[in-house]
Inverse folding.
């Protein structure tokens, strides 16, 4: 998903793998994504203590995504003359300050300010991370190193929401963010010890992004991606209010269901690899179709514990395949400008997070949480239509030769 710097020329002396630095990058992803996901599990107590509606509290997600969107489009050009080690360390410090500011926030503006700092850290770190990984290990070990880094994302998806929900119920939501700040500080110190100097390479420019986006097959794909992630984050941001208000669950049960969601999401990565080896068209089309159907079922049939738990788990499994599938599509559909297309992918996701959370909050406050899931399902089914009739997915032959 991130911008990737050019690899060393073939025949050049192979560098020694810096596995400690690779692990520190994975820990950075864990800290950043974990902090991003915390409001989904703490929305109710945050809103109650700050004296605001849950819809307004949900804008903490919107603030992070808006700034993450802007940062992902600008960070490479703005920091092109700065050592990447210093840039990454700066983003890790922003993570610490963000969590501290949220933990002491007396009102909504302070909360949003803290989450905006997180958006800067998240968007910047994600945009640069793959390029950095490729400089930390030899070319033949890049897939392994990227797997280690992505394990931080999987771990955050599995643990952040349920652990945050449980600790918030026992120690308060402010202590959860203080713990996240302490974890971020440990990650910063580990990165300080392990990341080598990484002088900047190349002269990134803004115009390449617009050139890639002007390609019709890319712009149509970005529309589909936007609709999918809008639908997903409208669902995920407000899953706790749904489980509490519609299903009637307590904190412990909500935490358990969120844990199941995270595990299913992790397994969805493997599901994507299996499906992509058979058909990219099937994979890209099936995921939003399943997600949209699940959203509509939750909206109309929700309220039964076992059914709701199964539908939420199914959502996690289906959505886990989405980022893998679209990242693979980008590498096949835009081989000459994969880095720029990946940057657009990150930006589209952040814009979708902001739009999904904002729209979901408005709908929640005016029509209720079931209406949020109805709108989510509509966006996802529309994405399915766009993929079927507007996105070029004739890339299966290449996938059979190159594992996803």
């Amino acid at each position: 998903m991130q911008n990737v710097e050019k690899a060393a020329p073939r025949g050049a002396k192979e560098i020694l793998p810096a596995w400690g630095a690779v692990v520190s990058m994975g820990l950075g992803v864990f800290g950043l994504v974990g902090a991003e996901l915390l409001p989904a599990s703490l929305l109710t107590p945050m809103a109650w203590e700050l004296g605001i509606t849950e819809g307004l509290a949900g804008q903490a997600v919107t603030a992070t995504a808006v700034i993450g969107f802007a940062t992902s489009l600008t960070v490479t050009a703005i920091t092109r003359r700065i050592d990447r080690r210093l840039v990454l360390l700066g983003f890790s410090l922003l993570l610490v300050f963000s969590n501290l500011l949220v933990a002491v926030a007396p009102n909504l503006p302070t909360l949003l300010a803290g989450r905006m700092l997180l958006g800067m850290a998240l968007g910047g770190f994600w945009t640069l991370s793959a390029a950095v990984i490729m400089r930390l290990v030899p070319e033949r070990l890049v897939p392994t190193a990227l797997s280690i880094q992505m394990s931080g994302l999987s771990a955050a998806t599995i643990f952040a929401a349920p652990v945050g929900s449980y600790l918030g119920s026992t120690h308060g939501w402010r202590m959860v963010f203080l713990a996240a700040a302490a974890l971020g500080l440990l990650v910063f110190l580990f990165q300080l010890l392990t990341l080598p100097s990484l002088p900047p390479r190349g002269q990134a420019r803004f115009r390449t992004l617009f050139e890639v986006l002007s390609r019709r097959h890319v712009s149509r794909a970005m529309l589909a991606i936007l609709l999918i992630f809008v639908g997903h984050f409208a669902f995920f941001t407000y899953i706790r209010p749904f489980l509490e208000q519609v299903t009637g669950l307590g904190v412990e049960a909500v935490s358990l269901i969120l844990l199941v969601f995270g595990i299913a999401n992790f397994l969805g990565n493997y599901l994507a690899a299996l499906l992509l080896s058979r058909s990219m068209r099937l994979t890209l089309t099936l995921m939003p179709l399943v997600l949209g159907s699940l959203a509509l079922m939750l909206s109309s049939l929700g309220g039964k514990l076992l059914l709701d738990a199964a539908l939420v788990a199914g959502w996690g499994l289906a959505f886990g395949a989405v980022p893998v599938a679209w990242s693979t599509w980008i590498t096949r559909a835009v081989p000459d400008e994969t880095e720029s297309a990946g940057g657009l992918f990150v930006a589209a996701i952040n814009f979708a997070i902001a739009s999904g959370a904002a729209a979901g909050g408005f709908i929640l406050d005016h029509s209720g949480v079931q209406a949020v899931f109805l709108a989510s399902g509509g966006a996802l089914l529309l994405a399915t239509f766009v993929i079927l009739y507007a996105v070029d997915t004739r890339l299966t032959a290449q996938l059979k030769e190159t594992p996803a």
